[in-house]
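We emphasize that the prediction below concerns an isolated chain of 151 residues; any contacts that depend on oligomerization or on bound cofactors are therefore not represented. The input was used exactly as deposited, without trimming of termini.
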Amino acid sequence: MRHLLELLDGAVGRVYEEEGFAYRPRYTPLVRALMQDEPMTIGQLAEASDTTQPATTQTLALMVKDGLVLSEPGPVDGRQRWIRLSPSGRALLPRLQSRWKATSSAAASLDAELPVPLSEVLERAIQALETKSFDERIASARGRQSKRRGA
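Result of the prediction step, given as a token string:
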């Protein structure tokens, strides 16, 4: 899985680099969420982008450094951070949307070459893991191994 992700994200990342974007593929879920609604708290952004809060926080730190988002104290609780696209982040949106269309087309091309579309396999894997986590599956496998050794 890591290798597949490296191949896919690596190619997308190289396109951004070649075009001079201060942008990483991992930013996309957060940018898409902010395009729909802003400002958002880190927790709201994590939920809207379907990422964990620690991953969201780490990605946001990079995005702030790259000047794509602004992080401001909340109006009621200064410890709470409100996140919004920066003017330079907003200015990138038309170019990003164009690249996202090309990426989507490339993904469809890959899906067409596979016996089962990758997007479908990934969706089924996610559904299966939501039904029974990988932790539970590992525990079951360990239990079966223990029973075999004991038999």
